[in-house]
Design a protein that fits this description.
The protein is built from 9 helices and no strands. It is mainly alpha-helical and about 170 residues long.
């Protein structure tokens, strides 16, 4: 909704319109960083061992940011033309959380369901966070490569579609 909520700026002045979706994503990223600091504090408080694999966490964050920016550009564009996208996405994001192993380990689901869960590009990202931070082991590269490819494809598609449709923004706001 960042383009729609800033319609007066989008229609009156020319500047890179990607600023609006990116600012929404970056605001959430600040929340993520604050939550991460709280997580580290809790890990220290509960004496959870800190592993050297923590140094690889920024790489996983980068992959997640690329995925989120790609999705953000596509969804902000879609919401501009079809206002119901925001409502549909709010329901979808809740369902997406449940099909991503956020609150449960993927191994608890069984091998058949595990293959289905791996189709979700967030699954390897969440698993990588868990393995790097809590278990001190490296992520499985084949799973992570899937997320990297999907993230890059969505990022490139989002940037392309956003720029290709930019001349229609003023008419559709």
């Amino acid at each position: 909704g960042s383009l729609v909520s800033n319609s007066s700026l989008v229609t009156k002045i020319y500047f890179p319109r990607e600023v609006f979706p990116l600012s929404s994503i970056m605001a959430r990223f600040v929340d993520f960083c604050i939550a991460s600091m709280i997580l580290v504090g809790l890990m220290l408080f509960y004496k959870v061992p800190l592993h050297s694999t923590l140094l690889l966490v920024p790489l996983i964050i980068l992959i997640q940011l690329i995925l989120m920016v790609g999705l953000g550009l596509i969804l902000s564009l879609a919401n501009l033309f079809f206002r119901d996208v925001k409502i549909i996405f709010e329901v979808f994001i809740l369902l997406w959380m449940f099909i991503t192993p956020v609150i449960y380990p993927m191994q608890a689901m069984g091998s058949k369901l595990e293959r289905v869960l791996l189709l979700n590009p967030m699954t390897p990202i969440i698993n990588s966070y868990r393995w790097l931070i809590l278990e001190g082991r490296l992520p499985e590269l084949n799973q992570l490569m899937y997320s990297i490819v999907i993230s890059l494809v969505l990022f490139i598609a989002g940037a392309y579609l956003f720029h290709k449709s930019e001349h229609l923004f003023a008419e559709n706001i």
